[in-house]
Amino acid sequence: MNVPLPAGDFDQCAAPQMPRNILLVASLFSLPYRVLRTAAACGVNVHVLGGPRASGLRFSRHCASFNAAGSDPASADIEELAEDINAVIAKREIDVVLAGDQPTTRQLILLKRALDCPAFPGPTLQQFDLLNNKWDFTKLCQRLAILVPDSELLAGKSALKQSLLSGEIGFPVVARPLDLNGQNGAVLLFSSADLGKVESISYAPVLVQRYIDGQDVGASIYCEDGEIKGLIAHTKAHSIYRTFRHPQIEHDLEEITAAMRISGVYDFDMRIAPTGDVYWVGCNPRFFGEILLSMLAGLNFLALGLADTSLGAVQYAPDGSAVRMLRATAATLAMPWRLSKRDFAYAGEMLGDPLPFICEALRIEDRSVGRMGSVGGSR
């Protein structure tokens, strides 16, 4: 499904009643950087407690202070990490603590009761582990009568290869890890000619799903106790992020959030088939790479969680918002009349704080400042 979308108006989405100081706990660089930028747009001071791979955050002009953790927050002892966080809370007069990436999200869930100030709304440990596991998420959708690709869980790549050779599982299929982000680790197998790709699989067990012809789409929400407060459905192709409204996606999200009674920010991956059917693939129960793009499109998810959200209606980005990332903006410079103020705002956001742009150009990865991915954000 190709969604023809006009450009909407840019809205910074500043929210009232914001805390003064927040603490971003980070193990990596790329995703926490986008969270930092989105939080700074709310008008708060963003302090960082980071491990070695997050050290590049200190160079952002939006970082109020960088506080080195005693050890990587992703793997630190819970009691030690709580002590590190509480020390920064006292020193920087922190009002709210939030996790910047997947590893620190789970850590913060485990220790938030030991903190000296509130944490940003998020899932319980049981909710996080269920939604972060693609097989468990698939089973949840099936219980709720939400469409998912035909799926099977296999012990490993040997079992997958044997099932394909015997015809027990037919082509085309996608092999996926249970808990890696987005499409990371996914292996697409169209025919027996692709059997060699199975050897590249380094994880077990393996989730095998029927390949759905169609278009990749996503949806992001902020919710409280199962009630959605903010929602964006979006596509990202050719370095252009676009928002759209879709009744089935919105209905399914209401079913999932109500059944789980979750709070916080969540991002979902789907495929829309040529028939219009929406097939749900996975959930990221944390902040997501497109959060900065969502803000520029008109909805700041951090603002919803940091401010009073006692609002009657669900907040959406303007239908048809589009944001061009730097690559798409550069390709359009010959026809500048096609650029919107939102495109210029994104370029200004990136070039005004050039560290991630430079890191991407130099192909610096996780081993130094965290996996960069696309400057637009990766899930």
Jot down its keywords.
13 helices, Rossmann fold, alpha/beta, D-amino Acid Aminotransferase, Chain A, domain 1, 379 residues, 3 domains, Dna Ligase, domain 1, disordered N terminus, 32% helix, disordered C terminus, four-stranded parallel β-sheet, seven-stranded mixed β-sheet
Set down the secondary structure blueprint.
Elements: E1 21-26, H1 30-40, E2 45-50, E3 63-68, H2 78-92, E4 96-99, H3 102-111, H4 125-132, H5 134-143, E5 151-154, H6 157-166, E6 173-176, E7 187-189, E8 206-210, E9 215-224, E10 227-237, E11 240-244, H7 247-260, E12 264-272, E13 278-284, H8 291-297, H9 301-306, E14 315-316, E15 322-324, H10 326-332, H11 341-351, H12 355-361, H13 366-369
Parallel strand pairs: 1-2, 1-4, 2-3, 10-14
Antiparallel strand pairs: 5-8, 6-7, 6-8, 9-10, 9-12, 10-11, 11-15, 12-13
In short:
The protein is 32% helix and 22% strand. The protein has 379 residues and is α/β, with parallel strands linked by helices. The chain is globular, with a radius of gyration of 21 Å.
Structural class: alpha/beta
Provide the succession of SSEs: EHEEHEHHHEHEEEEEEHEEHHEEHHHH
Give the count of helical stretches. Answer: 13
The CATH C-level name of the largest domain is Alpha Beta
Compute the number of structural domains. Answer: 3
The share of residues in helices is 25-40%
Oligomer: single chain
Q: How far apart are the first and last residues' alpha carbons, in Å?
A: 21 Å
Largest sheet: 7 strands, mixed
